[in-house]
Design goal:
Layout lengths: L5 E5 L3 H12 L3 E5 L3 H20 L14 E4 L10 E4 L5 H14 L5 E4 L6 H5 L10 E6 L8 E6 L5 H13 L3 E4 L8 H17 L5 H11 L6 H8 L1 H15 L7 H8 L18
Parallel strand pairs: 1-2, 1-4, 2-3, 4-5, 5-6, 7-8
Antiparallel strand pairs: 6-7
Amino acid sequence: MGRAERIGVVGAGLMGREIALVFALAGYDVLLADQSMDLLDGARARLAEIIQKAVARGLYQESDAAALDRIATTTDLEQFFDRDFVTEAVFEQESTKAKVFERLDAACKQSCVIATNTSTIPISVLASHVGAERRSRFVGTHYFSPVSRMKLVEVMPGIETSPETVETAMRLCREVGKTPIAIKDVPGFAVNRLLHVLMIEAVRLVEEGVATPEDIDTACRLGLGHPLGPFELMDATTSSLCLQAQQIMFEAYGERFRPRPLLKQRVQAGYGGGRGKPGWRNEVRR
């Protein structure tokens, strides 16, 4: 049986497509948007692959493949007119997100909650890109990659976000099997502030010749109990995104978040990681 709320997700990349999937798996009607049908078709193919692998590992049931039927796709944000809760998951840049919020604010009904999956940008800053009447229904919901497996969601209210909007976001997170925690609206929130201190020190260790990326990853997995080491994680999420996050937090907090020169050099040289691309652990180009 379907859920009451109609869900929208803008951005069919690594985060957005899996946010759409977890809502669809929980029985919600989902509309996923991106700039082209090629991107959307690619996202659907990737989701089908994720489901197939999860079924093979015993994490999903065969019947979970029907979740894809609950995800419709569009390149037109005007189609979000009937959505009740919309999550933005586009490129981590204020100007890019601002254009999406302006279009969603115009297209969505007044009762619709708009959530952002930003990992570092303050919610109140992003809320400034919707009209004053919408700001009480604007909230941050920061998921973690891979969304289909990671349970945590940071939920952040902006200055004008209403308690009812926060509770709606928390409830929806629980209904899709996530564990939400309430976080104050500050740059980087909580988890990324912890994570990037670790990443910065990990890169410093490589710069100083203390250990290789491979050995540091092994140390974090076996010595600290982390599922992925910092360099494996940078390769998965891309070093360019990590660099961008560190630059935002450096501007906010100062020296302790200054990105390391080696990270900047590797990103500029094209060793940023990502699926099938060279990174810290795989420098072989296709």
